[in-house]
Amino acid sequence: xxxxxxxxxxxxxxxxxxxxxxxxxxxxxxxxxxxxxxxxxxxxxxxxxxxxxxxxxxxxxxxxxxxxxxxxxxxxxxxxxxxxxxxxxxxxxxxxxxxxxxxxxxxxxxxxxxxxxxxxxxxxxxxxxxxxxxxxxxxxxxxxxxxxxxxxxxxxxxxxxxxxxxxxxxxxxxxxxxxxxxxxxxxxxxxxxxxxxxxxxxxxxxxxxxxxxxxxxxxxxxxxxxxxxxxxxxxxxxxxxxxxxxxxxxxxxxxxxxxxxxxxxxxxxxxxxxxxxxxxxxxxxxxxxxxxxxxx
Length: 296
Description:
By secondary structure, the protein is mainly alpha-helical.
């Protein structure tokens, strides 16, 4: 099996875990753990795991000229990205987050056009407009009355912010992954992530009532720290060593299917007409925006 095939399998594995995460993380927040406290568990746990496995990788130092890039990566991928997603998920629903997150490839496309001057065709512009319309429609009209989703429109907006900053992270990370081993990159990324997230999550972290957490909450926390954080970031960073950032982001299209099936199957969310229409618009938009033109 060649490296490209392994990279594709890694990207599929990451997006599958993310698909489950929409419901699993929601099952812990905000009843047992507040969103920013959950982020602290993620970055601390993943930092420890990446430092442990880094001993099996090469001994590398980050070049001084790359300090700013890796700090930017940490802010985009560890700070704003994680904080906005978990805050949004705490306020909204698993299906809403699974649908809105698929706008990420469109963000990557726009940033690629700005950063590397990739040409955007008329069809891609139409796709961007349709995809954004679906995401915005879900934010504006996807309001429901749910005890575990206290402010769905605001939560949806936070999830949209997450998609924007995760797309930005993929662009910047690709530059660094071409220079450094994934273990080196990730251990420093999550170490910086602790410092960035600490002011937001410290009080919520120490407020967790560990002795009274049920087993269901504990296994879900472990899944999010080990699976959704450590494994997915490792899988994605490996995928970026063999694939373009836009290609890796395209695997996010699988998240709504996986997320919706899991959420409905476990009874944590249900389908509505607004969600179905919004999902169709988003998927149509990202398809048009990312489909390659066949050369004659």
